[in-house]
Structure to design on (598 residues):
């Protein structure tokens, strides 16, 4: 395979966030390039995998998309245990979902893997007219707590691939790659080969 | 409110409308994936072999119907609804009233139900054998209508969540995903959320109630089935605040897997695969989100008659069926793919139920209860610990 000289990284990634923030939609957009208005409600969690090539490695994400309803949060530790990365999702049109996101950050920082890469996603960025959480407020919070922040839209695909690429780049590398500039040839949809250049 | 007769007989209608699909030899060779509707109107994607299996299942359902009619002819109408037959099979018979013929009937019935209840008889048989009929008989006849009327315009966190989930419950289903389907499902779920405010509404119940609606003749009967399920059939607190009952079931399940499928359990443990990652959804949705509809309902046939132990039999069987493949897997992702592929393609209920009841050692409701008791303290301690940890975090934040 063409991955010789490159590293293959398996990374468990968990999505957490309030009910209806769009966790499943983000995953569906990233994994299948699709968006549906009414996504089946997730019970427990749903599993997906997707492979990305970043310049020095191939990252295979094993994604756990968790259920949002409050009472399901007692199941969350099972899904974030051993995770290398987390995306904490809130809905920019719903301030309560931003508050809920902060609680997830707290919980992960106290319980999760200390080297976990954490991203904060302000989803539904296409609904500008209904915005309740400013990008500045979220950015400030993210900076203070050592996360990186992006506003995303699963509907328009804005920043969706980018957030996963950014995570892939930030994942700790165990050893330096033997061939950092090598090209990775893989069987994957063409739209993702463009990397972080999607419609922003 | 109940003008939906035509829709309620959906299963039958679809059964008569859908012609046998006869895939051409070319389609077979190309292993083309086709989309079709199953007995209950769900869109299924499968290959040609799956279509053939579904056709065979339809034929078996008809045969099973003939068996039930023949018994009805020889034993009398509704022989299976006699209270004594019901209670014996559930292990609560009074010795003094035990007649040999009743006992024989009970044995016949148990076997018969494991072979499947014909879809037309399901509403009647479920309603009676599950205890729903008895539950309903203890309240005034107008209970359901009064309840629905009284809560119609109320807004609670539960109703908000229900409204959010209605279009997300089996989207695309020809009846459930219509304004009428949404309204009916809403009434059942909202009604129940007021009947038991500890449960209120828990995501997952939307799928369970939706499938109950498709099977039962009226929404009122679906409501009572939901009530008996949550109040009598399943473990307590399965759907309440922190899903503690669900946590208990998962621990019991893990223990059973070690006992019944030790090689699989050891292998998965080595892969650091927690079986609850997949089994939680199975238990909360009672397989309705993972198995094809007729297969799910065959599990429910037995569930309503023999109790919640059936969920363990079924879950264990899914692992058992794929023992060899699972033992060869090296990765968490592989395990999940094997299990998902298996459940989604279990179009032949017999394949699953044979393993569930013949290859999995027998368990009694009693042993399961004991196991639950054993696990409860650990679950409570764990949930409590998490809560306290989170509370400390909040304090630190201030």
């Amino acid at each position: 395979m063409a991955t010789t000289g490159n590293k293959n990284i398996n990374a468990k990634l968990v999505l957490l966030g309030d009910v209806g923030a769009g966790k499943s939609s983000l995953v569906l957009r990233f994994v299948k390039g699709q968006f549906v208005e009414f996504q089946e409600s997730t019970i427990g969690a749903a599993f997906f995998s997707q492979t990305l090539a970043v310049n020095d490695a191939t990252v295979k994400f094993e994604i756990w998309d968790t259920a949002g309803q409050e009472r399901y949060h007692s199941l969350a530790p099972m899904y974030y245990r051993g995770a290398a990365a987390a995306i904490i999702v809130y809905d920019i049109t719903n301030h309560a979902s931003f508050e809920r996101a902060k609680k997830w950050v707290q919980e992960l920082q106290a319980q999760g893997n200390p080297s976990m890469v954490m991203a904060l996603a302000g989803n539904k960025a296409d609904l500008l007219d209904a915005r309740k959480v400013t990008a500045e407020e979220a950015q400030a919070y993210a900076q203070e707590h050592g996360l990186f922040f992006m506003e995303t839209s699963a509907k328009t695909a804005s920043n969706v691939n980018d957030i996963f690429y950014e995570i892939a780049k930030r994942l700790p590398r165990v050893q330096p790659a033997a061939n950092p500039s090598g090209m990775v040839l893989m069987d994957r949809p063409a739209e993702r080969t463009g990397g972080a250049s999607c419609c922003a | 409110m109940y003008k939906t007769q035509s829709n309620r007989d959906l299963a039958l209608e679809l059964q008569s409308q859908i012609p046998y699909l006869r895939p051409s030899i070319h389609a077979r060779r190309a292993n083309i994936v086709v989309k079709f509707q199953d007995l209950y109107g769900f869109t299924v994607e499968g290959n040609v072999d799956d279509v053939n299996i579904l056709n065979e299942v339809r034929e078996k359902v008809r045969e099973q119907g003939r068996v039930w009619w023949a018994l009805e002819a020889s034993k009398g109408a509704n022989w299976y609804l006699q209270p004594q037959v019901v209670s014996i099979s559930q292990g609560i018979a009074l010795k003094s009233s035990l007649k040999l013929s009743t006992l024989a009937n009970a044995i016949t019935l148990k076997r018969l139900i494991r072979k499947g209840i014909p879809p037309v008889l399901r509403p009647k048989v479920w309603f009676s054998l599950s205890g729903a009929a008895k539950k309903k008989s203890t309240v005034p006849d107008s209970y359901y209508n009064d309840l629905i009327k009284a809560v119609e315009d109320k807004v609670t966190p539960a109703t908000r969540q229900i409204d959010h989930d209605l279009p997300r419950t089996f989207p695309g289903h020809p009846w459930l995903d219509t304004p009428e389907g949404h309204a009916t499902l809403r009434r059942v779920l909202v009604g129940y959320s007021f009947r038991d405010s500890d449960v209120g509404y828990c995501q997952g119940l939307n799928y369970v109630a939706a499938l109950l609606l498709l099977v039962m003749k009226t929404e009122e009967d679906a409501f009572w089935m939901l009530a008996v399920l949550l109040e009598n059939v399943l473990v307590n607190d399965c759907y309440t605040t922190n899903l503690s009952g669900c946590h208990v079931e998962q621990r019991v399940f893990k223990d059973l897997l070690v006992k019944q499928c030790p090689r699989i359990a050891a292998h998965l443990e080595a892969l650091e695969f927690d079986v609850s990652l997949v089994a939680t959804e199975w238990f909360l949705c009672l397989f309705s989100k993972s198995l094809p509809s007729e297969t799910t309902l065959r599990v429910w046939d037995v569930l309503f008659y023999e109790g919640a132990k059936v969920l363990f039999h079924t879950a264990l069987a899914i692992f058992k069926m794929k023992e060899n493949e699972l033992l060869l897997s090296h990765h968490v992702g592989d395990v999940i793919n094997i299990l998902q592929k298996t459940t989604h393609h279990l179009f032949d209920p017999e394949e699953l139920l044979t393993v569930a009841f013949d290859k999995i050692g027998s368990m009694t409701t009693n042993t399961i209860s004991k196991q639950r008791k054993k696990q409860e303290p650990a679950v409570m301690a764990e949930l409590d610990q998490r809560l306290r940890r989170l509370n400390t975090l909040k304090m630190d934040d201030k």
